[in-house]
Amino acid sequence: MFDSFQFVTPPYDSSQHSASVGASIAGILFTAFFLVTSQISPAQESDIPLAGAESLLFMTQALRQQAFGNVQTLSDTRTVVASETPHPLVPKLKDWSDFEYEVNGEAFSLDDYFKRPAARGLIVLQGDEILLERYGAGNTPETRWITFSVTKSVTSLLIGAAIHDGFIGSVDELVTDYIPRLKGSAYDGVRIRDILHMASGVAWNEDYADPESDVAQAGAANGIELTQYLNTLPREAQPGTRFNYNTGETNLVGELLRAAIGNNASRYLQNKIWQPFGMEHDAYWLLSSVGGVETGGCCINATLRDYARIGRFVLADGVLPSGERVVPTNWIRDSVTPSQGSENYGYLWWLYDEGAFSARGIFQQRIFIDPTRDAVIATHGNALNATGDEDQDHTDALIEALRRSLSPQR
């Protein structure tokens, strides 16, 4: 049933990737381990790691349920203000009582999926019609949920907007043209295209079993701290030739965006996409520190319907309802074209069969986009583990079965 649809295996599903994202936001959400205690029952207090908490990965599922849906109350954020005229999504709910998906030869229903604590929200759009919308207990259409690495794909869209606006010439320009602090380092000769493909050729160790690895040392770095660290790294491959999942470089993309536009990423997202396309709810983008900067690779907090509207914006080829183009012609096409280094990766998008692609974040956040079916499938998730577990198997299989249940539209 699923043979023709191959979800990405390593490097996406590696334990290294899951640890990298969790550790990158560990410092940002450190206070959540303590502040969230006021929001849960006394019976759960023994599960809170009050001492030595260093990573979101070690929070209990119950504690994460509170933190993921209340990030703006736990850490410093910038608000991305909603539109006064939301892009309409028209309810046309189908009967899904006979729907099944399969994991390891066993059939499951939608009810089975939502019995899993990991299932926090699911929406299926075809065109602007909502065919399915359902939430786990405690979540609602107003719940802002953390995106994790889904944010990378949004940052990619903003790079496209910056090119269209003339702040960036093209993806073939050099990273050092925008971040001169990297001149004289292994980033000499690295193009913007290369870091969007995670193929700079600069050595980076993403191994979290090693406390001396690069991601352990600088996975959450931004600004001067980030560029100072990247300046010390050697080159191990020619730029553009080898894919190497690199947390530091996703932060570097955010650094480059801010340098190019001369503004913060939250305001740019608000002005270019969030308000003009018609997002329904305010979103919140976590900052690296109080009064700090957004991390280019993580932590926009948004409602499920607005996750889905991001997918609709992409399916509209980056064109607003007014007809105004936000990203260059062919930007979306180029963004989801396989790179030289990996057939499964574009400009910070994961690629699948039949031209489908996805923004993906740990704990099973997804914006899955299928142009052939004019479909968007988005999830809020709180999986037991960051990635690579039974909850991921269920989410993968669910999305595959949902997409196959829809008729091609193009």
Low-confidence region ranges: 1-24, 30-54
Please report the total strand number as a whole number. 13
Biggest sheet: strand arrangement: 2-6-5-13-12-11-10
Provide the β-strand percentage band. Answer: 5-15%
* Name of the CATH homologous superfamily of the largest domain: DD-peptidase/beta-lactamase superfamily
Number of domains: 3
Name of the CATH first level of the largest domain: Alpha Beta
Rounded average pLDDT? 87
Q: Could you tell me the radius of gyration in angstroms?
A: 20 Å
CA-CA gap between termini: 22 Å
The structural class is: alpha+beta
For the sheet with most strands, the description reads: 7 strands, mixed
CATH topology of the largest domain, which one?
Beta-lactamase
Helix content: 25-40%
How are the elements arranged and paired?
Elements: H1 15-24, H2 32-35, H3 61-68, H4 71-74, E1 77-80, E2 90-91, E3 101-103, E4 106-108, H5 110-114, E5 119-126, E6 129-135, E7 145-146, H6 150-164, H7 175-178, H8 192-196, H9 214-218, H10 223-230, H11 247-261, H12 265-277, E8 283-286, E9 300-302, H13 304-315, H14 331-335, E10 350-351, E11 357-361, E12 365-370, E13 375-381, H15 390-404
Parallel strand pairs: 2-6
Antiparallel strand pairs: 1-8, 3-4, 5-6, 5-13, 7-9, 8-9, 10-11, 11-12, 12-13
Helix pairs in contact: 6-11, 10-11
Please give a handful of descriptors for the protein shown:
410 residues, alpha+beta, Beta-lactamase, Methane Monooxygenase Hydroxylase, Chain G, domain 1, 3 domains, seven-stranded mixed β-sheet, 13 strands, globular, disordered N terminus
